[in-house]
Amino acid sequence: MFSEEIALRRLANQQVAQPTFTHPSEVVAWLGAVQAQDYLGALWAVGLRIPGATEQTVEQALADRTIIRTWPMRGTIHFVAAADVRWMLELLAPRVIKRARSRHAGLGLDEQVIAASAEVIIRAIEGGKQLTRNAIYQLLEQAGIATASSRGLHILLRLAHDRLICFGARQGKQPTFALLDEWVPDAKSLPQDEALARLALRYFSGHGPATLQDFMWWSGLTTKEARAGLSALEGQIERACIGELEYYFAHDLPDPPSNARDAFLLPPYDEFLVAYRDRSAALDPQYNTLIVPGGNGIFNPIVVIGGRVLGTWKRVLKGSSVTITFSPFETFSTTQASALRPVAERYSQFVGKRPVVEI
């Protein structure tokens, strides 16, 4: 394997270039988790990996509770498969809680406040009910628990990390929260060693070729924990030295796409880019600030051609149409521009709109 193959093989392995699954939960389980703080972008992150999928396809999986939206790792919202949500939170959330202690202390959020908040929320939503964030904040305020200055959000985060709540169904455009035990009652725990091994297998199978450092970045695990998970996979994955780095991947790693000029529109925070500590296989570092303006952690949607990130794109919905505007790092060639039109049409089908393409 050559270094220039890494991004192309990831495109195939991540189901972008060569999708093999038919249900959203299969995609999410294969990848281990799909970053999902940008809700509409996350729907596309899953949908683009399933031939013919629409927004309704993915939202139905959320409604059916085969995909769960919560904060399993790095304090960031992800989609995870329903069967994985409990063991993943048990494994990864404690470190996020520990890192948040100083922030919580500055906000006056001690264990007593968290426990009181949990009591208020349990009383409000137990029995299968769901409430929006603002409705929960109102109840907390009525109970004398302040939610201003991001206190409310940190309370919800902590209770999600404690496996008390998760996102429920949407009310219009507003997310709701439900009790995790009621929303996914069959989610199982795992012993820590099994959880580490399973997480490592999911990552390197679904994201490979990838390094140990990539896995640590994605999961938030310590070096010791990540190595333990990797060591448990002896005989289950392959490894290869590419340049000066050691990469790990599944035995049946797909071949690179046959047409290296294929184009793809990926949403912000797509696993193809965000899931790696070192993103240089797909993105020239000189363009980092165009993907994450200001280095503030907010990712733009990306245009990928031939395994390389060559620009950004945005959409504007208006009536029955969706206008898709491309912003290349450098001028697209005629061939590249032609390759973008069918993928823009695929996105328009996903959202159920007529495409208007601007390059």
In short:
With 359 residues, the protein is an alpha+beta fold. The chain is built from 16 helices and 13 strands.
List the topology elements:
Elements: H1 6-13, H2 24-31, E1 34-35, H3 39-47, H4 55-63, E2 67-73, E3 76-81, H5 85-99, H6 101-107, H7 111-125, E4 131-132, H8 133-142, H9 151-161, E5 165-171, E6 174-179, H10 180-183, H11 192-207, H12 212-219, H13 223-231, E7 237-242, E8 245-250, E9 263-266, H14 271-274, H15 288-291, E10 302-305, E11 308-318, E12 321-328, H16 334-351, E13 354-358
Helix pairs in contact: 3-4, 11-13, 12-13
Rg over CA atoms, rounded to whole Å, is: 21 Å
Give the strand line-up of the largest sheet. 9-10-11-12-13
Shape: globular
Average pLDDT confidence is 95
The ordered H/E elements are HHEHHEEHHHEHHEEHHHHEEEHHEEEHE
Question: Major beta sheet, specifics?
Answer: 5 strands, mixed
Q: Could you say which structural class the secondary elements and strand pairing correspond to?
A: alpha+beta
